[in-house]
Design brief:
Blueprint (H helix, E strand, L loop, with lengths): L2 E5 L1 H13 L6 E4 L10 H11 L3 E3 L5 H10 L3 E5 L7 H4 L6 E6 L6 E2 L2 H7 L4 E8 L9 E8 L6 H24 L15 E2 L15 H11 L6 E5 L2 E10 L13 E4 L6 E4 L4 E8 L23 H28 L1
Parallel strand pairs: 1-2, 1-4, 2-3, 4-5, 6-9
Antiparallel strand pairs: 5-7, 7-8, 10-11, 11-14, 12-13, 13-14
């Protein structure tokens, strides 16, 4: 059976290696530009293609060159993970058995983008990974198989990535064996009531301290490494919060959301008042990759987190005045010259 890989990230890479270990070579490997959080880039897939002695492509979408190569190969099936664009039906039908896609989500729920991140933010108690046939409609093809697992209140996005890394190659293998026997999959029920997840961007992780400690903790867990992190501001500096959890029951407080209520030098934890409850910050940093105890960033319990709009406006006004002054001096020198 001629198999094509269409995808990106460590999941696709590990799946190809898994099939190779089973003695199966790929007929073509197609990848695309890697997201910043991906550990596997185009050169890694190019080397895999060389090991498989097959054509290699890196593209944003299935272009004409790829289509012509597939027409020559006459592939039987494709495995797809994290492909960025919808694949058109004219390409899908080039595969005898179609294209199998690995997806985080209990389809038809959690279709679309950033589904593991949204699952944490939504407070889901369980997650599901699904292998399904691809159609021209987003994540709507017949289900080949699913696997469920629990999500608890200590689960970070890196934990869900670890689950996917463990399950993706194995589920693809099991699905491949079923498809070889002619399994057509099971039609998705309730598509009209499905849940569509939309893309997330780094600025979506700006912390709103007026919401509850539970909600902020979920945002932190969904935005943490390998992503850019949930963030806030303190004294005009951007602060990234990598780990946080709602504080246990204790003293009630009256104060504005974002107000620091305690700094524990021994544990390093900084506790912050939210719109409902107190949030314990376990680790933080001023830039991507920096992880320190938050007590090193917060020197006083009188500090308050949050975007200081007044300070930002004052800084912009000051910078504008400085530029205007420099411009006047430059014009004056030009006239004298």
């Amino acid at each position: 059976m001629k198999i094509v890989a269409i995808g990106r990230s460590q999941l696709m890479y590990d799946t190809i290696k898994y099939f190779n270990a089973k003695g199966i070579k790929f007929a073509c490997i197609i990848t695309g530009p890697a997201n910043h959080e991906y550990t596997r880039k185009e050169p890694d897939f190019k080397k895999l293609a060389k090991d498989n002695n097959c054509p290699f492509f890196s593209a944003e979408y299935i272009n004409e060159d790829i289509r012509k190569t597939l027409a020559v190969i006459k592939p039987d099936i494709a495995l797809s993970v994290n492909w960025k664009t919808v694949i058109k039906w004219e390409i899908i039908r080039m595969f005898r058995y179609g294209i199998m896609n690995y997806h985080f989500g209990d389809l038809p729920a959690f279709r679309g983008n950033a589904t593991p991140n949204w699952a944490i933010i939504a407070g889901e108690k369980a997650g599901t990974v699904t292998v399904h046939y691809m159609t021209e409609q987003l994540d709507e093809g017949n289900i080949i198989l699913k696997q469920k697992f629990r999500i608890n209140n200590n689960c970070y996005i890196s934990d869900l990535y670890a689950v996917m890394a463990e399950t993706c190659p194995l589920l693809f293998w099991r699905a491949y064996l079923k498809v070889k026997k002619g399994f057509k999959g099971v039609k998705q029920a309730g598509l009209k009531k499905s849940l569509r997840c939309l893309p997330r961007y780094p600025y979506d992780s700006l912390i709103d301290w007026s919401i509850s400690a539970n909600e902020i903790a979920r945002l932190v867990r969904a935005s943490s490494l390998p992503f850019s992190g949930a963030y806030t501001y303190l004294n005009g500096r951007k602060v990234i919060i990598w780990k946080a959890r709602p504080a246990g029951k204790g003293i009630d407080h009256l104060g504005a959301p974002g107000q620091v209520v305690s700094v524990n030098k021994k544990s390093g934890i900084v506790s912050v008042l939210t719109g409902a409850g107190v949030l314990d910050i376990g680790s933080a940093g001023l830039r991507r990759g920096q992880i320190v105890k938050p007590c090193g960033l917060v020197k006083s319990a009188r500090a308050r987190f949050g975007r200081d709009h007044g300070a930002i406006i004052e800084a912009l006004v000051s910078e504008n005045r400085k530029l205007a002054c420099e411009n006047r001096m430059l014009k004056s020198k030009t006239r004298r010259g």
